[in-house]
Amino acid sequence: MHSTLRTHNTLRTHSTLRTHRTRRAAQAAAAAVIVGALALTGCGGDNDKGGSGKPSGGGKESGATVTLPELNGQSLEVAAVWTGGEQANFKKVLAEFEKRTGAKVTFVPAQDPIINFLGSKIAGGQPPDVALLPQPGAIKQAVDKKWAKPIGPEAQAELGKNYSQGWQDIGKVGGKQYGVYYKAANKSLIWYNAKVFENAGAQEPKTWQELMSAAQKVYDSGVTPFSVGGAEGWTLTDWFENVYLSQAGPDKYDQLAQHKIKWTDPSVKDALTTLAQIWGKKDYVAGGAKGALQTEFTKSVTQTFTGGDQPKAGMVFEGDFVQVNIAETKAKIGTDAKVFPFPRVGSEAPVVSGGDAAVILKDSKAAQALVTFLASPDAATIQAKLGGYLSPNKKVPNSAYPNPVQQKIAKSLIASGDNFRFDMSDQAPQAFGGTPGKGEWKDLQDFLKNPKDVAGTQAKLEADAAKAYGG
Fold first, then answer.
1. Going from the N-terminus, what domains does the chain have, and what CATH number goes with each?
2. What is the CA radius of gyration of the chain?
3. How far apart are CA 136 and CA 274, in angstroms?
4. Biased-composition ranges for Gly residues (predicted)?
């Protein structure tokens, strides 16, 4: 099996590939499940019909924000790893592009890791015209291999109008724009059992102090406040990343992600000390440290929403993709299961994100037009209405999302502006940030077991990071 990629061009091992597949599978499944679980699609209108009309032959249709060229007779292929409902909904976006331009678009299902899939296609002389790539490092790898082509002025203009500078910058390599981030994930959310909060008299917190207050009320009501899936180290890195990003700030986050500062830095001490307020608080974590370290991610979610108003825990932290796991419990999202943004520890609430960027592999008028369309609010609004999708495009109206839960998640993502960051462990060498039983995963699991040992944890993190980063 080929290794998958990570940001900054470091290759990951099979264990990391499995982790990415687990996360991506959860997100893809969520795209299919969310609409049914909420029974609130908010769809309708011509956008849902896709290419059901005569091709417009170019120009700007009524209500459209972007002008597209006439492409009658031209065809192109778009590759992505999306399956199920996610793929079906994206095809409706492509159908609208066909309707407005006269082009013929074929969706090519890709295998993960998509870079390896594209390599085989390119070696066979049949690359797709456009590919949707996860992570900034995927774009850089495509550029380094001389596969990717820079986007043109039309798409660049759409980016400038519709995206924050941060979302534009992560699609750049060497100062040139190669990627247009069409899809995003919000990994800075805390889901809670609504009945537990109601019984405890707890309110949705906006600050870390308010979170601790809410947790105490939940505890006093007889329910353990937090469920933690400590058996999988990536859940613990996500906890750390959200606390660190909010407390230390984006610049420090970038420096630590690239190991430009050491894990013995005082900012890491502060974040670990903050985490210990939950991990080290007696009876604040379901099953205690020992139980949490034996709890898989999926169970950490489901045990929060089973047992009526006496579940194993009142809250669980993770991204928007946990909706598929919540749906398995028969809890109604938005009624039984509610969500709030990860509370701010410092001056700003954190948003740790992921996403997929459209990258051109075969430069043509049609490929450039498609990427321009994907950079517009026209395309993203179509898929937003269908559910199970988040867009980093700030011009997509919040009302386009089909229910209050999706609207809150989207609003939090857009409100982060340029302060969002990609998952830090995904930016690290796999030996440090992506291997079960080793590196950051193991060190944070040990810290969960003994949250008093802040200095010792820092020392282990730095030793493992130095070895993995090669210095």
1. 7-186+353-422 (3.40.190.10), 189-350+428-469 (3.40.190.10)
2. 22
3. 29
4. 52-61
Extract the tokens encoding 430: 């796999």
Q: Could you give the percent of the chain with pLDDT greater than 90?
A: 73
CA angle 159, 163, 165 (to 5 degrees): 100
> What value, to the nearest 5°, has the Cα angle with vertex 20 and ends 18 and 24?
120
State residue 48's pLDDT score: 37
- Mean pLDDT score, 259-284: 97
Check residue 35 and give its pLDDT: 43
Collapsing DSSP to helix, strand or coil, 146 comes out as: coil
The whole model's pTM is what?
Answer: 0.77
DSSP state of 163: S
Instruction: Show the DSSP H helices in 329-424 as ranges.
Output: 365-374, 377-386, 404-415
Pairing of strands 75-80, 130-134: parallel
| 254 neighbors 247 (Cβ within 8 angstroms) | no
Q: What dihedral do alpha carbons 191, 194, 195, 198 form, nearest 10°? A: 120
